[in-house]
Design brief:
Layout lengths: L1 H25 L3 H34 L14 H25 L3 H29 L5 H28 L1
Helix pairs in contact: 2-3, 2-5, 3-4, 4-5
């Protein structure tokens, strides 16, 4: 009987150690978390670039490609309204990912610091687009200029993210 208790106790400790080892192995490393965050940010950045292209097509369709004097585009333009709200969603998602990245290791914090300026600029562009839609006298050229700035910020973000992913 004492031999059975000893074997049972040894088996219990072995299973306990195996369980702890499995749990420790299943935990992703900080670099892996940071790499996943960077990939999610790249996905959002790609979607922001698509929104930029769609916005360009909508503005061109509403104004005519060769028109120098852009007519007003207001909040009743459904396509522009949807695109601006989608842009806001993507920018907010990127800001949340930056906050998650700040909680990770040094490399991830550095990546977050590098792209936070571009993301803040994209958020400002989103706000300005919304404000310009509310003003019925705002011409399409204002949206066109804001959209061009959005492209520059998205390109800056993607170059930073690509270099960050390579470093992980």
């Amino acid at each position: 009987m004492p031999r059975i208790k000893t074997i049972s106790l040894i088996m219990f400790f072995l299973l306990f150690i195996l369980c702890l080892g499995t749990m420790a192995h299943a935990q992703p490393t900080k670099n892996q978390n940071c790499k996943n965050i960077a990939k999610k940010m790249m996905s959002n950045d790609i979607k922001i670039k698509k929104i930029h292209k769609q916005m360009k097509h909508v503005i061109d369709a509403a104004t005519g490609k060769e028109a120098q004097n852009y007519p007003p585009i207001d909040r009743f333009n459904r396509h522009v309204n949807i695109l601006i709200h989608n842009l806001g969603f993507r920018v907010e998602s990127m800001k949340e990912l930056i906050e998650d990245a700040k909680k990770q290791g040094n490399n991830c914090q550095e990546m977050a610091r590098k792209i936070s300026g571009n993301v803040n600029a994209m958020q400002e562009i989103y706000v300005n687009m919304g404000i310009s839609l509310e003003n019925p006298k705002t011409s399409g050229s204002k949206l066109f200029d804001l959209n061009k700035n959005l492209e520059q910020q998205a390109n800056g973000t993607s170059s930073e993210l690509q270099s960050a992913v390579k470093s992980f």
